Amino acid sequence: MKKTSKRSNELRVSDTQLNSVDSEKDKNKSQINFDQLPLEVTLKIFSQLDIQSLCRASVTCREWNDTIQNSDSIWKPHCLSLRTVCQREIDDDLQSGYSWRVTLLRNYQKSKVKHEWLSGRYSNISSSFSLPETIMYPMDADTWGEILEAELER
After folding, report:
1. Which parts of the sequence belong to the F-box domain (predicted)?
2. Is residue 63 part of a domain?
3. Which end of the chain has fewer CB atoms at under 10 Å, N or C?
4. Is 39 a member of any domain?
5. Cα–Cα dist 104/78, whole Å
């Protein structure tokens, strides 16, 4: 009797393993690979991501990186949102022939710092030692002029 039950247990395990293999095959048939999507759909998906998510997605694989890096339509809305703070800088970069992605990269940190200055975050700082060094970003004379004008108006 023991031999029969042991043998039927082995059959059950084999049946279970076979069923799981079959279900994996069925599962793979129903999945669509991302690279099988039309480019328009892929771009639409990537255009829904924020900047940080785009950067993370670009390191996922070479195909995603190429798609994200070479598609200005993905970067344009993000760049235009920075334009509210850095209009002159972004317009100058675009007129100089920079792509939307490069323009965004050139102005992203600057827009963060400039926004903080223009919103008055650093208005009550008494000396340069009170400034947080980690978020400072080098800016041109025109940008500092805009910040100075905003401070004088306060």
Report:
1. 31-78
2. yes
3. N
4. yes
5. 7
Whichever domain contains 51, its CATH number is 1.20.1280
Q: What range does the domain containing 41 cover?
A: 32-70
Cα gap 100→53, rounded to integer Å: 17
Pick from 83, 71, 72: nearest CA to 114: 83
Per-residue pLDDT for 107 more than 80? yes
Number of domains in the chain: 1
Q: Provide the mean pLDDT of the chain.
A: 79
Q: What integer is the mean pLDDT of 30-42?
A: 77
The predicted pLDDT at position 3 comes to 55
Tell me which residue of 149, 139, 64, 132 sits closest to 108, measured CA to CA.
Answer: 139
**41: helix, strand or coil:** helix
| Nearest of 43, 57, 119, 110 to residue 79 by alpha carbon | 110
In a domain, 152, yes or no: no
The pTM of the full predicted model, rounded to 2 decimals, is 0.62
